[in-house]
Structure formats: C-alpha cells, structure tokens
Amino acid sequence: MDFTTLRDKVREYLPPEKITIIEEAYRFAEEAHRGQVRASGGPFLEHPLETAYILAGLQMDTSSLAAALLHDILEDCGIPIATIESRFGAEIARMVDGTTKLSRVSLAASGAPASERQAENLRKMLVAMAEDLRVVFIKLADRLHNMRTLDALPPDRQVSIARETLEIYAPLAHRLGIWELKWQLEDLAFRYLDPVKYRRIGRLLATRRTQREEFIARVMEILKEEFARVNLKVDISGRPKHIYSIHQKMERYAVLGKQFDDIHDLLALRVLVDTIPDCYSAVGVIHSLWHPLPEAFDDYIANPKPNGYQSLHTTVVCLGTTPLEIQIRTREMHRVSEYGVAAHWRYKEGGKSDLHFEEKLAWLRQLVDWQRELSGAEEFLESVKTDIFIDQVFVYTPKGEIKDLPKGATPLDFAYRVHTELGHRCVGAKVNGKLVSLSYQLKNGDIVDIVTSRNSKGPSRDWLNPQLGFVNTSHARTKIRQWFTKQERTVNIEGGRQILEKDLKRLGINIERLALANLFNYNSVEDFLAAIGDGTVTTHQIAVKLAAQQEKPKEIIEHAPAKQASSVVRVFGVGNLATHLAQCCHPVPGDAVIGYITRNRGVTVHRKDCFNIVHEDERERLVPVEWGEADTVYPTSVRVEAWDRVGLVRDITAIVADLKINITAVSLTNHDDHTISTFLTLETRGLAQLSLLLKKIESVNGVISVTRIGDEATRKATPKSA
C-alpha cells in the first residue's frame, strides 16, 4: 500500500488542513525508515502505513493517524522524543512515546513466565489508556497488521502471539466496543491456534453460501415492501458471522448434541433506522410478519452493554421453520457498534462533544484501580480475564441502580461490587423478593437485596472454595482474601494447619511439610499454613501441585518400561520387568511410589508410606520407580461415614458419575448409632481428580467424613507378591 491510498481514505472524513499534518508525518517516517525491511522481506514503512490505514477505517482523529505513522520511530530509528515533539507537538509526541513503551516488555528478555510478561504488558497498556486511550487504539491496529503478516515468523512465535491476541487484544477491542477490530483479531488468532478447525468451518460456510444468500434476499425483499407500506425509512443488510464466533457456537451446540446444520443464524439481518422510536416500530412490523421465538428478544437500547453497544435483537421464524436473527438500531448506534469509543474522537475532531464518553469508560477506571492493588501477575490476569473480558449480566439494587457483573456472578459478587463492607457482613440474599443460596448465579434483570447482620463474624473460608461456587469474580475473592490476611496471623496458621492436616489425612498422603511449602515457593511452614488459612492456597491446588510434581520427567541413566501399562510406571536401573499396582495401598498418580521386586511377578508398585514397605526387611528388593505419562485409570478405595438417610447412596453416586469416575465395587455397613459406612472402589485418573471428588462427597447432606482407604487395608495385607 502507498500513501495515496491512505490519503484517499482520510479525505472521506477529515478537512484538507488536517491532512497536511498526516502528510508531514508520512514524509518524516519515510525518511527515518529508509532501507529498513520487515521479517517478511517487505519495506518496513509498509507497517506504519497499514496501521494508520486501519485507524482511518475507524475514522480516528489527525493526531492518532500521525502518531500511528511515527509509532516505530523511537525504537527502530533511534530518533529522540524531543525531535518528534519539536516537529509535531506535545500531543503527538506523547502518543508516540506511549506506544513505544507498550512495545518494551522488560520481562521478556529475563526469561520470566508468560503470565508475568502478559501481565506486565497489560499493566503498561492500562497506564497508557488512563493517560490517552488513543495509544491503545494504535496498539490494537499495530497488532492487527502484525497478525495479518504473522506467516513470516517461526511457528512457536505464531502460536504465542496468536494466543495473546485471543486472550488480551481481542477482548480489549470488544470492551472498547470496536467490533471492526475484534472480529478480525479473533479470526486471525483462531487461524493459527487451530488451523484444522479454521479451514473446516471455512469449507462448511462455502458449501452453504448460495442457499443462505438466496434465503436472505427473499426475506429482505419482503421486509422492504412491508416497511415501505408503513412509510418507515430503513436500510437493510446481511450480517455474516465471522469464523471464530461460529466455532464458539459449534462448541456450545456440541454439548447439546447439535451439528453445524443446526446453526441457523450464520447470516443474520441488520435494520438501520433514523430514531429510537423507529427501532421499536420496526420490531412491531417484523413481529407482525413472523412469529418471534420466546426469550429471544434483547433490548440493549434500554440496557446498553458495558462497552456502549445499543441495539434491539429479535429472532423470528420465517419462510417456513427457519429461525432468523434480526438486529434493529439507529444509524448512530451502528457507528458506535462498529467503532466503539473510537467514535468519540470523530466528534471531537468535528467540534462536537460526546456526553456519554466518560460513562462508557467506567469499567476502565475500575480496572486501573484494581491493577494498583493487585500485585501478583496471575492474580491480575485472572481479574482482567474473569471480571472484565467475559460476558456480562445486568442486575438491579433495591433502589433501581444498574450493576453490571460477569456472567456467572453470585449475590456475594454483587455485594462486594457494591461495597466491601456489604460483602463482609453478608449473611444471605434475596433475588426478586425470594431468599436464594449465596451460590445462586444472577440473571439479567434480577433485583438483588443483600441481607446483612451486625453480628456477622465476617467472610467464611468456604467462600473461597471454587468447588462450592460462592464467589466467581476475582474482585470478590481479592477482598475476602484481604480480610483474612488482616486477621491475626496465629488464627490463619492454626486454621491452615487444620485444613491441611484434614485434607492430607483424607487423601492418605504423608509428606514432609517444609517440602510441601517449598513447592509453593514459601520458605517457612508457618507462611505456607497462613496462606492456606487466608485462602491464598487451596487444598485443590495442593493436590494438583503434588500430582504435577510426580509427573515431571527425571534424568535417568537406564530404565525399561514395564510390559503391563508400559507408559504408566517407569522402573529405574533394571531390565524389562512387568509392573503391577499394589492391591494393598492402591497408589495413584501424585502419590510418592516405590517398587518391590517380587519372586515371580516382576515389580509391584506401592506407595512409599505403605505399611508393607515401611516394615520390609529385605530393603535391597526395593527399587525406584516413577509415574509415566499414560492417560489411564487407577483403582482407589474410599470410605464415607454418614448419618443414615434415604437417598444417601444415590446422592454420592450421582457426584461420582458427574465427574465421569467409574465405580467398580460398593459395600455398606450399618451401625447402631444410625450411621452408615459406605466403601467405594473407584477408578480415578490421579490425585487431583481424587481430591476434587472427596471434597464434593463431603458436601453431601449428612456426610460426616470422607477418607481414602489404604492404611487399615495394608496392615492386613498378604506379602507383597500378592
């Protein structure tokens, strides 16, 4: 592309005197980048030109376009910022400097984890956004052109950049309301992350295109005639879905057992009118022609999305039994839906003011505040991805104020969003006038009333248990953790000790506590116990970490895979021997294990704390073993103590079935005190899955305790050759 193409695009909306500044910026960039080439082999100047052209498509202001042309000058040409300021003024220089800082991720060269680099990049972006949002528009356009030319990079870099684009840049474009950039970033990232599915969806779309377009043409003709009959001025156009959105819908449909042919909104309709009353009139006309599907009408005009999007959505059954989605909006709403908050600078350039601009960026101010108080990289990324970048629900306070929360949010999430103290003192919740569980997931339009008590002792540690679902936003979790952190350290240590001991006993694990603390980068056991007590570390994380630790590859000189389940257990320093999992202690991946060389059955694999191993006299018959990488299942015995009641076993087995765990044996023992012992033999995939299962069973009504069996059984076991 040459500058003439960019200039023609800019002339569509900017006056001649503004274009002069852009021309000067181009000449300066052309001179600075002369002789430089990109990784693709093309001239380097092509990149800033394409970046500026993308912004011109959003009808951005003069300063943004000039800064886009100059955005690589400082880093790649060594020209000082003072020179830019003297030539183009402080505003453009500030934007160029801000864009340059976004490109310099200090952790990238230090070998820091990807999450830390990503978090550092995002933090810098937030600072830049707080100073001048246009810097991020330039960065988004810069990323879009880089994605278009990603073929020039090695495959591993392609995947890394594509993943970051899908996780950070595309959602950011969505929250800024810039649909035009969002869908392109998503499709390009998807193309590199899953090329097989990308090409498959493309082929499926091509085979049905003619049929869909004929259908849409017939519907448009009918609508045009009906709108003309009632003297309603409209523009009607087709709205094709992009490939990544179709992939997402196919994933959701697959869960319901549906296929690609069941997706009927691959090409929807968009109706543009002049005024808001015309929007509702148009819906009336459409509904008079065709029957609307129940619960398929959304009014985003009365309740705009957090990114400023406004429109009416309805789905009707037309021309037989075919559902068709139709969006109705004003022409100004359409501009905002395509360009989002970028439309603000067009108003500013034209001398107008966008009165609702600050309201549209309330979420940004919130995010800037959060990034100051969240220190950890993983915690910060979690906050952004869960609280800002996913679908929202809109609920009301009892006074009628609207609060937007991430989809899946609970009354506790709502309470902490309103005020931290309201969350701390929460003892219950009413939704639409009825008492609900604190784990209830809020829906659009719910009226939420939080019940508080002055006698409340504060948050419960159960609120931080992800399996129980009390809180689903990072913001609420952070506030709860901070509350526990402020409590006396001794209380947290003792609480953490009780939680840890109970869980390790339940799992039948014996591990040195300092070694376990070191796995989580804590130098002392007390610090580690305090972290468990305040909810920073959960028992599920401990189980996952132990399982992962056992699966890490180790450096060995000689080993031979076992004949039976060859990739399940590896034996060190011996020839080819068959391996068997011991029936006395039932080891599973995640357990520390050791092998015992039998007289005629090869190697039997035991847990290191197995009673038979601990009391073994012939220590020379013990050999080191480790878990391999096979995805298999392992027999595990579990004992459940509970109060006897109708439906108890049904509730327990339902939980086991939900986790897709097979039960191979069940036995029951009734006791005189109206309790019952249930013994289950299960096939699990390892320690992490077993930990999750035991927690869920423990939450069943009437259950007193759940423990993994092994110790009692090993004491009665026959010699290890069995």
Structural features, described:
The protein is built from 30 helices and 20 strands. Residues 105-112, 370-378, 551-567 and 711-722 have low confidence and may be disordered. The protein has 6 domains: 3-193, Hypothetical protein af1432 (Orthogonal Bundle); 207-342, Beta Polymerase, domain 2, CATH 3.30.460.10; 391-469, Roll (Ubiquitin-like (UB roll)), CATH 3.10.20; 487-537, no CATH class; 559-627, no CATH class; 634-715, ACT domain (Alpha-Beta Plaits), CATH 3.30.70. The longest helix has 35 residues, at 195-229. The chain is 49% helix and 17% strand. A 6-stranded mixed β-sheet has the order 11-12-16-14-15-13, with no helix packed on it. Strand 4 and strand 5 (322-330) form a beta hairpin. The protein is an alpha+beta fold and 722 residues long. The chain is globular, with a radius of gyration of 31 Å. Helix 1 packs parallel to helix 3, helix 11 (179-193) runs antiparallel to helix 12 and helix 24 crosses helix 25 (525-533).
